[in-house]
Amino acid sequence: METGDDYKSGFVGIIGRPNVGKSTLLNNLLHRKLAIISEKPQTTRNKIRAILTRDDAQMIFVDTPGFHKAKNALGERLNKAVRETLDEVDVTVFILDGTKTVGKGDLFIAKELAELETPAIAVLNKIDRLTGDQVEAEKKVVQNLGEFSDVIEISAKTSENVHALIERIVELLPHGPRYYPEDMVMEQPESFIIGELIREKVLQLTREEVPHSVAVVVDDMEKREDKDLVDIEASIYVERDSQKGIIIGKGGKMLKEIGSRARQEIEPLLGDQVFLRLQVRVEKDWSKRPEMLKRLGY
């Protein structure tokens, strides 16, 4: 029953410093890849809404950019997105990296959460890399950060204790209707996910050679009438000519590899073969220009 007296539903904000495992947890919760993962900070830029529907509850998870010290217009917009999320959700999941000492970023987030009435669960992630004693010691540290509804230790990578986290979230959700159809898992259109998958491959393959100032826009996507093939044209935006050269690579080798790896993940998403055409465009200092941020969807 979708709207019975016992049905629970609501929005769940996932928050934490960069690289604590927010996107890994989101993908684990939905059992599919919805958020891109990279070792570079600020990998998640948009608020990603993913939907987990059960017989007794529907949870809409909002994965946010990591809170960080803003250095440009892009950074300021990312932090604004996090604050907006905190104001909108019914439950907040505050993720901390159990392998690292609590830092200024964690204290900053804890302070922001303390000013809200929204129930918050503190989640100690990456326990697969800790001993039992280390887990207990880190939990005590986290408990001293603020007044949390619960402190739960998990491994987003191995799924350990993730089920317990889901059950606790359901307990804290208000009673409400099913907001989205049962088979819907993401609010964003397919073109958004495709652009993110391409950006992930750029970040993974270029490593430290190209800074984080990479954006991807899907310019056109059309299925051919005569065969199960989808033509996709996408633009990769960078800030400097030198970055463009790195992404294209010698003889176009790097760009070809980016396209090949992205296509391998896009095809299962669409259920069709994909012909992917990539272009690299230079927009000088786009991450510092508000008009370009708006044009690129940030």
UniProtKB/TrEMBL annotation:
Its main location: cytoplasm. Monomer. It is a peripheral membrane protein. This is GTPase Era. PANTHER family: GTPASE ERA, GTPASE ERA, MITOCHONDRIAL. Residues 63-66 are annotated as: G3. Residues 154-156 are annotated as: G5. Residues 125-128 are annotated as: G4. It comes from the Bacteria. One of its GO terms (biological process) is ribosomal small subunit assembly. GO terms for molecular function: GTP binding; GTPase activity; ribosomal small subunit binding; small ribosomal subunit rRNA binding. Keywords: Cell membrane, Cytoplasm, GTP-binding, Membrane, Nucleotide-binding, Ribosome biogenesis, RNA-binding, rRNA-binding. It comes from Candidatus Solincola sediminis. It is found in: Cytoplasm; Cell membrane. GO terms for cellular component: cytosol; plasma membrane. Belongs to the TRAFAC class TrmE-Era-EngA-EngB-Septin-like GTPase superfamily. Era GTPase family. InterPro entries: G_ERA_dom, GTP-bd, GTPase_Era-like, KH_dom-like_a/b, KH_dom_type_2, KH_sf_prok-type, P-loop_NTPase, Small_GTP-bd. GTP binds at residues 16-23, 63-67, 125-128.
